[in-house]
């Protein structure tokens, strides 16, 4: 079965969030299960493309409205990522360093989608499944089924995965002329709330859509930035499949980014050694519980709640708990956390920015990982933490609710709280400080977590089952 994954991001080429991690892992595991899966993404002028060799497999021109553009399809030569990687390069449009935030971003992703369809159409390819990820590829199902240019592709099933339903990529009807010739009577399939909405269009037009956790599928019907009624109407077309993690990358026994490798049988000694190295780097004492946060410092992640909750905890517990935060985002939150660092220099430190090696070390060395998210479609950080024996402290939302069971319940191993507010975070931190004092309980939680299977094998098979239901 031939599958094309279309995405704006793919790890390790270009990553902003969890979308890249999923697209960089799912096709590999699908191929291991017997599929022929490939990734198609925009070209970015980044380290990966300079360090690897590519073949030119196609070149052509197409129209973006009245603008004729030249494009190339290049393919990484060795399939070193475990799948075929194709990149669409357009001089002056898709040849830049960054992924998002250009003033002509809409044109970039419109061109990306049109060039993909032109390529497979003109080259005579007939994939079994076209799998689109987020709104950057959301117009592909509509164009396949309602444009005369792509009539040859109209029988091919499409699957659309929503990694974050808050972002729609919507734009005005004045841009309709940039699309290829379409059936005017079908343009209602593009519309939502008075404009062209790629996310809504994909949900309407695709054969099936998926979310990255079952609970998030339900949440979209009451929280999706204006698409709630659409998700209610289309709910029987949706499937919730929890993301997996790449257990070859996230492996405490082989992780090259860890100074001290360990397994579930050496977890106490291994985590303590990594914790000592981590704490020495950031001026913290390694004999206290270390609670970490890794992620974007934005409202969606609940980061704005952290300064108040952490300050209350430090004033309550004094010198008996430490905090380490890694991330960047809202300037106000960054400043508030930096201020905490000056107030409590022995117990709180902050790294503004992102560092992949440091993130791995934090997962391995921290005792708890805090995720107070307001919105978390799946979440991968809690899965990395679980894999590395670090107890997740999460709000009961989206995929966090699907993947973390409170240790107070049968079979539990994490800490969950209900409301996105400083009070609930503070109370959960208190629970963490208490359980940390019970070394026997902590060891039980760590061993239980490290025995859990959140690998991609199971999730990849669920996608394969979905594909087979559409092609049978």
Automatic annotation (TrEMBL):
Please give the organism: Mucilaginibacter pallidiroseus
Signal sequence region: none
Task: Please name the GO terms of the biological process aspect recorded for this protein, alphabetically.
Answer: glycogen biosynthetic process
- Positions contributing to ADP-alpha-D-glucose binding: 15
UniProt enzyme class: transferase
Ranges for the Glycosyl transferase family domain? 281-433
Q: What is its EC number?
A: 2.4.1.21
Question: Which keywords does UniProt give here?
Answer: Glycogen biosynthesis, Glycosyltransferase, Transferase
Q: Which Pfam families match?
A: Glyco_transf_5, Glycos_transf_1
Specify the protein name.
Answer: Glycogen synthase
Family statement drawn from the similarity comment of this UniProt entry: Belongs to the glycosyltransferase 1 family. Bacterial/plant glycogen synthase subfamily.
């Amino acid at each position: 079965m031939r599958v094309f994954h279309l995405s704006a991001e793919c790890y390790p080429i270009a990553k902003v969030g969890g979308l890249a991690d999923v697209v960089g892992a799912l096709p590999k595991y699908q191929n291991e299960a017997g599929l022929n899966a490939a990734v198609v993404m925009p070209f970015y002028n980044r380290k990966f493309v300079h360090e690897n060799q590519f073949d030119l497999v196609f070149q052509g021109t197409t129209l973006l409205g009245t603008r004729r553009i030249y494009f190339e399809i290049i393919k990484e030569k060795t399939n070193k990522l475990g799948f075929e990687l194709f990149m669409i390069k357009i001089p002056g449009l898709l040849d830049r360093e960054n992924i998002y935030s250009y003033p002509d971003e809409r044109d970039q992703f419109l061109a990306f989608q049109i060039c993909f369809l032109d390529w497979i159409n003109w080259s005579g390819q007939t994939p079994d499944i076209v799998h689109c990820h987020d709104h950057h590829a959301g117009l592909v199902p509509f164009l396949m089924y309602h444009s005369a240019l792509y009539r040859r592709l109209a029988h091919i099933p499409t699957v659309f995965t929503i990694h974050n339903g808050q972002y729609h990529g919507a734009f005005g009807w004045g841009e309709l002329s940039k699309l290829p010739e379409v059936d005017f009577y079908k343009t209602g399939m593009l519309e939502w709330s008075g404009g062209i909405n790629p996310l809504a269009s994909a949900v309407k037009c695709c054969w099936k859509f998926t979310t990255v956790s079952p609970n998030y599928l339900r949440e979209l019907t009451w929280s999706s930035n204006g698409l709630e009624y659409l998700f209610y109407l289309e709910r029987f077309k949706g499937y919730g499949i929890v993301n997996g993690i790449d257990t070859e990358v996230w492996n405490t026994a082989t992780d090259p980014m860890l100074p001290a490798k360990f397994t579930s049988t050496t977890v106490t000694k291994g985590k303590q050694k990594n914790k000592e190295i981590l704490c020495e780097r950031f001026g913290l004492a390694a004999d206290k519980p270390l609670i970490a946060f890794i992620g974007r410092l934005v409202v969606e992640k609940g980061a704005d709640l952290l300064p108040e909750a952490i300050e209350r905890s430090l004033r309550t517990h004094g010198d008996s708990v430490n905090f380490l935060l890694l991330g960047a985002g809202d300037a106000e939150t960054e400043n508030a956390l930096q201020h905490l660092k000056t107030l409590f220099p022995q117990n709180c430190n902050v790294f503004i920015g992102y560092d992949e090696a440091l993130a791995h070390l934090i997962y391995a060395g921290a005792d708890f990982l805090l995720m107070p998210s307001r919105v978390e479609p799946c979440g991968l950080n809690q899965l990395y933490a679980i894999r590395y024996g670090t107890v997740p402290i999460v709000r009961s939302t989206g995929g966090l609710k699907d993947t973390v069971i409170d240790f107070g319940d049968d079979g539990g191993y994490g800490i969950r709280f209900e409301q996105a507010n400083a009070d609930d975070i503070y109370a959960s931190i208190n629970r963490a400080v208490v359980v940390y004092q019970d070394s026997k309980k902590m060891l039980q939680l760590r061993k239980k977590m490290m025995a859990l299977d959140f690998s991609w094998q199971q999730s990849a098979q669920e996608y394969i089952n979905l594909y087979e239901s559409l092609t049978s």
